[in-house]
Amino acid sequence: MEIDNRGHLMQRAKLRKTTFKHIEAEWFNYHYTLREITNLREEIANPFDEESEDINIVKGANSVSNPGNPTERITIRLTTNKRLAHLEKVAKSIEEVYNAIPDNYKELARLRYWNKRDDLNWDGLALELHISKRQAMRWRDDIIQATSEVLGWR
Predict the structure, then answer these.
(1) Residues 6 or more apart whose Cβ sits within 8 Å of residue 47
(2) Phi-psi region of 89 (alpha: psi -120 to 50; beta: other; left: phi over 0)
(3) Residue 69 half-sphere exposure, CB side, CA atoms within 13 Å?
(4) Tell me: the pLDDT tens digits for 94-140?
(5) For 152, left (φ over 0), alpha (ψ -120 to 50), or beta?
(6) Separation CA 151–CA 153 (nearest Å)
(7) What is the CA radius of gyration of the chain?
(8) Are the CB atoms for 37 and 91 separated by under 8 Å?
(9) N- to C-terminal Cα distance for the chain?
(10) Which residues are bridge partners to 144 per DSSP?
C-alpha cells in the first residue's frame, strides 16, 4: 500500500464491481467473522464424536481408540480446515489494511462499517468527518482497493 502526496492510498488496477461489493461486505461483517473464527476453532478443538465414544465403550477404558496425540490431531484439524483458513485470511487482511491506513481513513471505516447507527448515509458520514461526500467515497474506495491487494483478489 502506497500513499500519495495528498494522503490518498494509491490505486492500481480497477476492481470488478462484484469483488468490490464482496470486500465491502467483508468489512461490514468483520466482527461476525471474528466470532465465527472463534466458534469454528472451538468446534474443531472440541468435536463431539459419537463414534469414538462408542469405540471407547467397546474396547474398554484402558485401550486407545484413536492413535496419536490428541493435541496433534486438534492442530492438524485447525490447520487443514479450509473455511477457518479463509475466514482468518479475510480477517487478517482487514486488520492489516486498517492498521496501515491514516487515522482519518480509520475513522471512516469505523463509522461506515462498524457503527451501529443506521442513520449515517454518505452525506452524514461526510458531515461527521468534516469532508465532502465525494472525499468520503474516495477514502472508501482506497480502503477497499487496499484490501483487495492484500487479499490478492481482483
Answers:
(1) 77
(2) alpha
(3) 4
(4) 999 999 999 999 999 999 999 987 778 999 999 999 999 999 999 99
(5) left
(6) 5
(7) 22
(8) yes
(9) 15
(10) none
What are the cell numbers at 90?
479475510
Which grid cell sits at 5?
A: 502526496
Q: Which phi and psi (to 5°) does residue 9 adopt?
A: -70, 135
Cell triple for 21: 461489493
Cα–Cα separations (whole angstroms), residue 50 to 19, 55, 112: 41, 9, 45
Nearest to 99 by CA among 29, 147, 138, 137: 147
Do you know the residue count of the chain?
154
Residue carrying the nine cell digits 462484484: 18
- Residue 73, pLDDT > 80, answer no
